Amino acid sequence: MARLDPRIAAVTDRIIEKSRPGREAYLSLMKEEGERGIDRKALSCGNFAHGFAAAGDDKKAIRTFAGPNLGIVTAFNDMLSAHAPYYRYPEQMKVFAREAGATAQVAGGVPAMCDGVTQGQPGMDLSLFSRDTIALGTAIALSHGMFEGIAMLGICDKIVPGLLIGALRFGHLPALLIPAGPMPSGLANKEKQRVRQLYAEGKATKEELLAAESASYHGQGTCTFYGTANSNQMMMELMGLHIPGAAFANPGTKLRQHLTRAAVHRLVELAKDKRRPLGEVVDERAIVNAAVGLLATGGSTNHAIHLPAIARAAGILFDWDDLAELSHAVPLIARVYPNGSGDVNDFHHAGGMAFTTHTLLEEGLLHQNICAAGNDDFSTYATTPVEAGEGIEWQPVRESGDESLLRPASAPFQPDGGMRLVTGNLGRGCFKTSAVDSDRWTIEAPCRIFEDQRQVVEAFEAGELDGDVVVVVRFQGPRANGMPELHKLTPPLGVLQDRGHRVALVTDGRMSGASGKVPAAIHVSPEAKGGGPLSLLRDGDRVRLCGNEGLLEALDVDLSSRSPAQAPPPPVGTGRELFALFRETADEAERGGSGMLAAMEAIL
Question: What are the entry keywords (predicted)?
């Protein structure tokens, strides 16, 4: 493998240096937890008896410490297509654990909301903070002290980051995430998007739209576009938190069951040997690997929020300057919808994670010497699992099966990862240029100010946006309303762009892995609530967004002479009032948008 690219090494060294105090404090706490924290042997007889009272066939083994006991934290529900396959996983995993001389118990369940169901609805205001709720639920599940290893069942947007943040508070234990895979391909994503835009223009009926959506989202497994859920799986592999090649095998296949079995056996092995605890696996190198993979594959912009939050949970400081500098060093090697025509199944069949890992290692863009939990040798992540008799074997993948979708890092689609940091008198934001044609990386136009996405849709339908425009949707940050994704904006803004107008979006909200062809500065910080610069804009101000120069500016106006616009009242209904404390204490998007982590750091 090639020597590590000096640009990757320089960013890693900077992260290590600035993280040193927090990382040392975290590792010290984990060492103390491992030596003097709660475990089965430290429980009183009454505590312990409660812990195995319902363990059935495993009761004797747990009681007599016959082998490690794995704690399963599951995000199963059968409304969420990606998590419905987990229904039978715990009982299968108990069998697999017994095969390896161990036991397993469901430590607890955590909520798993579907952003696809809540897009544009009041429930989307709970989405970002569901990550912190999941982290808290994970900590509660593991707090019983009954376990020597952690198995996390979760895939989608906030769920994987939440599970990982919670489990990192038990970082003295080994841990793996066990995915269930994407649903088989249905209606092509490009066709689905075409029908959505026709509906936005009034040229398709609601029945036609529902038929297209149902043909796209049609069964168990993750949605097949390369959004946050599938970006999660890519990142977990490059951090060494999966069994190699586990990310994208479809649910319900024999291969998928073999991968789950291999994960349980591996976790038992680590627990028996007390090796590769989670807190050591998630180090600065693993965080950089995750970021490199995100950039190389054109992954979800949501991880510009989640990756700093995950890092903070392990005592590591990672920010948008780090992400932007890595983006200049990492080429774009994949075009998966919404950045291309193929879906995540096509990506997998073209070589998927195995080829991605191989070519990034070959060009020195990944840390090979990470402390992977899924396999002692990280180079095995450049292999793909295939069925072999009654088990699986891993085969190397050295070439792409479809270079229109997945290319070598030496011959990429773009020389950089296309996740640009844009800054100026309107704050700091993220611009995913990899999803946008290069002739639209610079937009300068009068702005129109909105305070929710419904207002934008109404203005579009009334014909008020029929011209060059920068649409500013403010008061969408963590403290204002929980920072929802603004997917309802994609069809109307796409229509305006297709009509030949120069259009851009600027917002302190999110767009996520479905960020598409319209240029957008998202996650703008400081957010509008509290007097951030977006609160000072007025209709008609000229705004310039430039991905080439990294600019986000209001032109020819003295913002300091203006008073901030008043924020809308706090959202209520659909349970949103329960999350008032989360909103009140949330920090900026660049730090992860989490008050929970800020409060945690204050006491450590």
Answer: 4Fe-4S, Carbohydrate metabolism, Gluconate utilization, Iron, Iron-sulfur, Lyase, Metal-binding
Alpha-helical segments (H) within 364-486: 453-461, 478-481
Inter-residue contact 326 to 385 (CB < 8 Å): no
Give the C-alpha separation, 362 to 109, whole Å.
40
Classify burial at 41, counting beta carbons within 10 Å of its beta carbon; exposed 0-12, middle 13-18, buried 19 or more: exposed
| Cα–Cα distance measured from residue 283 to residue 271, given in angstroms and rounded to the nearest whole number | 19
Q: What is the mean pLDDT of residues 110-123?
A: 90
Element (H, E) at 424: strand 419-424
**Tens digits of residue pLDDT in 544-564:** 999 999 999 999 999 999 999
- Contacts of residue 125, Cβ cutoff 8 Å, sequence gap at least 6: 481, 482, 484, 571, 574, 576, 579
CB neighbour list of residue 558: distance below 8 Å, 6 or more residues apart: none
Task: Report the chain's C-alpha Rg in angstroms.
Answer: 24
Max mean pLDDT range (186-190, 209-213, 292-296, 339-343): 292-296
Q: Which residues contact 475 (CB under 8 A, 6 or more apart)?
A: 451, 452, 481, 508, 527, 528, 529, 535, 567, 568
The amino acid present at 270, given as its one-letter code, is L
Question: Residue with structure tokens 């403010």?
Answer: 474
Amino acid symbol at 559: L
Task: Indicate the pTM of the whole model.
Answer: 0.96
My answer on whether 389 and 440 are in the same domain is: no
Q: Which residues pair with 406 in a beta bridge?
A: 334
Contact between residue 543 and residue 444 where contact means Cβ atoms under 8 Å apart: yes
Residue 13 lies in a domain: yes
Tokens representing 597? Answer: 């982590």
584 is a domain residue? no
Residue 67 maps to a domain = yes
Closest CA to 545 of 417, 414, 428: 428
The reply to whether 289 and 165 lie within a common domain is yes
Q: Report how far residue 176's alpha carbon sits from residue 263's, in angstroms, rounded to the nearest whole number.
A: 7
